[in-house]
Amino acid sequence: MSGGLQIRDLTVTFGSERDPKPVVRGIDLDLEPGRITGLAGESGSGKSMTGLAMCGLLPGGARTGGRIEFDGRNLLELDERALTKYRGNRIAMVFQDPTASLHPMLSIGRQLTDHLRVHAGIDKRSARERAIRTLELVRVPDPETAIKKYPHQFSGGQLQRISIAMAIICEPEILIADEPTTALDVTVQAGVLRLLKQLCDDLGLAVMLVTHDLGVMSSLADRISVMREGVILEEGPRFDVLRRPREAYTRGLIEALPNHLPFLDEDGQPIAGSEAAR
Ligand SMILES: Nc1ncnc2c1ncn2[C@@H]1O[C@H](COP(=O)(O)OP(=O)(O)OP(=O)(O)O)[C@@H](O)[C@H]1O
């Protein structure tokens, strides 16, 4: 397969050689341009470790095995110097807490342009123009004013849009979104999800959406992998997995949702007849 990113037999292990603690145990996953791949599962199932492995950001002491194929290379074999060429540049991440990727004391414009100048090496004026264009793309109102402001002057939803702008400003091919709406007010969640879908479609981004929330998955993911205790239990097109789950574990996740699943469409609206999924 060309383009995208392929994970093959990925393992992540903590602990010592004599007393290993495997947390990801031989998973396969494909990220394709213009597609959203969902990785679902309960807390502790290994979702975040999978995302962090793709960016070379695993905590110290983690050992890896298998392959993460991108750009004809196995990312797991790259040293830190080689990885910095990819991380934040061609492979970007959005986290649950947008403030984690933003400095509180620096203006939004400064952060966006610094990021761009480090990774893309472009001059100050072009960087400012690109920052404004990117804020337009993520629909932050009045970008010319927004670049002069500081993180605390924005709402949570706007901050998440800004952290998405930060992630995409270098035009990455891969975007890993780890619980991108979990910390947000429900009223703004649908807008951020819609934005991710639009960016995926318009920019041809290969998105990996990591979330425990199958309701979020239902509105967005093209395919869903369900993970438990470091293993992918089942994988398939979203409505196959959500409507006809093969595994009792997946059924349990669906049934555990409040009111079962309010399956949502791309606009975050409940899908008519979605009770058929119950
Ligand atoms: N530094 C570490 N040392 C040892 N074990 C760790 C370390 N970091 C995470 N783990 C373990 O790895 C497992 C997988 O964690 P991971 O964060 O990937 O789960 P998750 O599915 O993303 O859940 P959550 O949504 O809670 O983050 C967990 O059992 C966790 O305790």
Explain this structure to me?
Pfam families: ABC_tran (PF00005). It is a peripheral membrane protein. GO terms for molecular function: ATP binding. InterPro entries: AAA+_ATPase, ABC_Ni/Peptide_Import, ABC_transporter-like_ATP-bd, ABC_transporter-like_CS, P-loop_NTPase. The chain has 278 residues and is an alpha/beta fold. It has ten helices and ten strands. It has helices spanning 47-55, 80-84, 108-120, 124-137, 143-146, 156-168, 186-203, 214-220, 238-243, 248-255, and strands spanning 5-15, 20-31, 36-40, 63-70, 73-74, 91-94, 174-178, 206-211, 223-228, 231-237. Strands 6-7-8-3-9-10 form a six-stranded mixed beta sheet, sandwiched between helices. A hairpin with a 2-residue loop joins strand 9 (223-228) and strand 10. Residues 14, 23, 41, 43-49, 59, 212 line the site of adenosine-5'-triphosphate.
DSSP, total strands: 10
The N- and C-terminal alpha carbons lie at a distance of: 36 Å
Beta-strand residue fraction: 15-25%
| Ligand names | adenosine-5'-triphosphate
Give a short account of the largest sheet: 6 strands, mixed
Structural class: alpha/beta
Rg measurement, Å: 19 Å
The sequence of SSEs as H and E is EEEHEEHEHHHHEHEHEEHH
Percent in helix: 25-40%
How large is the count of helical segments?
10
Question: How would you describe the shape?
Answer: globular
Low-confidence stretches: 272-278
Strand arrangement, major sheet: 6-7-8-3-9-10
Q: Please state the average pLDDT score.
A: 89
Domain ABC transporter: 5-254
Pfam families: ABC_tran
Keywords: ATP-binding, Cell membrane, Membrane, Nucleotide-binding, Transport
GO molecular function: ATP binding
